[in-house]
Amino acid sequence: MNMADRRHIRVAESLAHMAGLFFAREAANPSVSGLITVTRAELTDDFKNAAVFLSVLPHTKEEEALKLAKRARSDFRDYVKKHSRLNPVPTIDFELDYGEKNRQRVDELTRRNKW
């Protein structure tokens, strides 16, 4: 793995970590939006755009939580500016992590169907 790949992974992990802290401390009210967990972040190759993926419990609050996250995009971008040395800070969007949701469903089905 070359230096550029390592930096790309490091920045994505850093964004995911900051998003988790942001939602835990600043943005989310679990009674309104459910429990928001940041599962991962992905960056474009040029570092200009990022997607932060969320998992929400209970699942009935997913749409509310996603709306809250999207409304908080500029606040989160300011949070990243304040708490990191990223320059420039990428444009950030939030998405539900359906891969994580599918993995949890497979685990549930596997547990239920054990002999």
Automatic annotation (TrEMBL):
Pfam families linked to this entry: RBFA
Keywords: Ribosome biogenesis
Top-level taxon of origin: Bacteria
Keyword hit for NADP: no
InterPro entries xref list: KH_dom-like_a/b, RbfA, RbfA_dom_sf
Entries under SUPFAM superfamilies matching the protein: Ribosome-binding factor A, RbfA (SSF89919)
One GO-annotated biological process of the protein: rRNA processing
This protein's name: Ribosome-binding factor A
